[in-house]
Amino acid sequence: xxxxxxxxRMLLRRLWTSHNALxxxxxxxxxxxxxxxxxxxxxxxxxxKILDSEIQESxxxxxGPGGQKINKTSSAVQIKHLPTGIVVKSQDxxxxxxxxxxxxxxxxxxxxxxEKGEGSRMAIKGARMREKKASADKKARRKYRKLGEGKxxxxxxxxxxxxxxxxxxxxxxAMDGEDVDGQAxxxxxxxxxxxxxxxx
Amino acid sequence: xxxxxxxxxxxxxxxxQRLVRLLxxxxxxxxARNELRWLAEHAATKPGNEHGKRLLExxxxxxxxxxxxQYILGxxxxxxxxMKCRPGVLIPRPETAASVSHLxxxxxxxxxxxxxxxxxxxxxxxxxxxxxxxxxxxxxxxxTTSAEIVAVDxxxxxxxxxxxxxxxxxxxxxxxxxxxxxxxxxxxxxxxLNEPPSLKEALHARHGHGPMRNYDILISNPxxxxxxxxxxxxxRSVRHYEPKLALxxxxxxxxxxYDGVTSDEDDAIGDLFYPAILRHAQDLDxxxxxxxxxxxxxxxxxxxxxxxxxxxxxxxxxxxxxxxPVIESVxxxxxxxxxxxxxxxxxxxxxxxxxxWWLDSDISNEWASTPVSxx
Lengths: 200, 375
Prior knowledge:
The complex is a heterodimer of chains A (200) and B (375).
Chain A: H1 2-23, E1 55-59, E2 77-81, E3 87-90, H2 96-116, H3 121-147, H4 183-189
Antiparallel strand pairs in A: 1-2, 2-3
Chain B: H1 6-15, H2 17-26, H3 29-45, H4 52-64, H5 69-73, E1 75-78, E2 81-84, H6 94-106, E3 115-121, H7 127-139, E4 146-153, H8 156-168, E5 176-180, H9 199-207, E6 217-220, H10 227-232, H11 236-241, H12 263-270, H13 273-283, E7 288-292, H14 296-309, E8 314-321, E9 327-332, E10 335-340, E11 342-351, H15 361-368
Parallel strand pairs in B: 3-4, 3-6, 4-5, 6-7, 8-10
Antiparallel strand pairs in B: 1-2, 7-11, 8-11, 9-10
Helix pairs in contact in B: 1-2, 2-3, 2-4, 3-4, 6-7
């Protein structure tokens, strides 16, 4: 029941804002009510292109005989970027070809981050995520402050970071914020289900 | 096989007891973790999820006993393609895919005959024709060239699976056909209707009787493991679960004596398919040939056979990663032979006549400087 009430409230609010949007001039950035606003955002800058001549690729399958004599299941791919010495590894999928693409994407994002810092694809992605999270938090706080006077509902909508557990050999800082696009916002917006006080 | 260190077992048991059971077959922790994840993902796709745990348990038990992961999951990736796999048919190997892709990358769409004719012997799952077709159609997108691929195998199980794999690749059925044939049996007529036909008979059946039609490219990954190597160097999971028919050539010595096989005799059994394939290549007027081999020693023996056949303009050996920019050369029967790439010796490549003009010119210029001729 609380879910239905929640959806109804969201719909009402959306109507209200779109009404406001029609009557008021846009002095401020439209508030994000759902996480499906990505089409309004500017496209992320592309990943930098990596030349094949700049990388050294190796397939990690150990030494010894190959071909018909063995049957290794390792599809891991490791690439080393020769100018910087950065090494990334991908072994997520059973397809070596797919792992090659994944490893190249990872490397591209790492290089981008090194080169551009704040202006890099990952940094922009991360900043957008934080912005969404902050606005969701703020909204949640405001809501619960209003609704939750004296009640137990004043909890902030935090907790689940929405990080999808993709295990990757190179899954360190370059992976942060990956795969959560659009999900974190949703996760943050949903208040803890059991503690939603019904309106009125 | 070295034992798994106790510290590694302890490390695995801290993460997940199931990893400990997969360690002996996977040999290292990252592989065990990957395989456990893939098995769990596969179990989750099966209907009737209430038994998901039990199904996963069953998969782990089979894998821990040594059954190849690809037979449990039912597929293996080969280049960009996912091929169906079943017991009784050899699982495609990534090294084969690397050789096939490298060959495709050398072919020049504009120079090739408009209807390129390719023959694949001992096709197994059909992985080679399917990947070659996939790569060539990518490469020929802007030209009118197309490839017609005929692939044969002696095993009815392999042919049935190859046809399933063909049906799973959109559009491939227009370019590829599979036929039963015995590559080793050299005969024009099929005397025994219960036996698979000879290659010539199979090709006659394909094209109709009359003068034998030629083929431009011949590829093969035949059985190439000698009986001794099968007993001593083949991985347990291969030896116990994959079909020996696809791995070890038949012992055709008469009379067969199992004691006292010299190492030369043993090698000769391992090499049994290559002379037969070379004869077919000559009879079918093949211009480009790519044959997989077990290691560099076998590559040297096969390169020797090709040089002695005396009809080829250029021979080279490819390693596991033939595109890797390292080139060495070795002397075979007084001829300097290029060894290309990185890894174990994996295949022998040869061309002649027009074949030269179908291949990337940068490389064929380099080839022009080292013609195969008896010194």
